[in-house]
Amino acid sequence: MKTKIIETATSLFLNLGFKSVTMDDIAEKMAISKKTIYTHFENKTELVEATSLFIFEQISKIITQIEAEKVNPIEETFKIKEVISHYLKGEKTSPEYQLKKYYPKIYAILDIKKKEIINTCFKDSIVRGIADGFFRADLNIDMISKFYYLCITGIKQDELFINDSLNDVMQAYLEYHIRAIATEKGIQTLNTILAK
Q1: Is position 9 within any domain?
Q2: Distances in Å between the alpha carbon of 181 and those of 75, 108, 177, 190, 196?
Q3: Number of structural domains, the chain?
Q4: Residue 115 falls within a domain, yes or no?
Q5: Residue 101 belongs to a domain with what CATH number?
Q6: Which pLDDT tens digit goes with each residue over 17-42?
Q7: What is the model's pTM?
Q8: Which of 195, 196, 194, 178 is nearest to 73 (CA)?
Q9: How far is CA 125 from the centre of its chain?
């Protein structure tokens, strides 16, 4: 039952946001009593934490699957962007934005986990990209990874882009970023992906 509650709450939170969904909404959706939910979760904050970790794990699994496909690192970067965009939406009502605003402690925990997976995944991608001739060999991998993390997380939080689609902003950033680190082979690959 606990897993079903997490799955139902996750679906509601992703579609309607953490703030607007109540325990009553979850109980009604599942056709169970609110008391049943409280036997597994002491309060809404505990349920929000469980669903947030569940979402993070789902995204992490998909990223791992994408990495296992061993496509070129440029294509991999765009595939991962699509997954993140799908889960975290693109508006100020997005689950990630609401999590940061209304549940900052949970957001901080997830931010550490997110930083770890982005750094590990991205560094591996850069190393493969250099080895395969897609990225320049003279890159400072650690520095580039930090730039990437700062930008990819910052553009979702900056008021500068409030009137822009997050998907469009992320797409533009990735193109900008890859052009800065790519070889001629990498730029040709990027142009092919962008033309699709």
Answers
A1: no
A2: 14, 30, 7, 11, 21
A3: 1
A4: yes
A5: 1.10.357
A6: 898 899 999 999 999 999 999 999 99
A7: 0.80
A8: 178
A9: 17
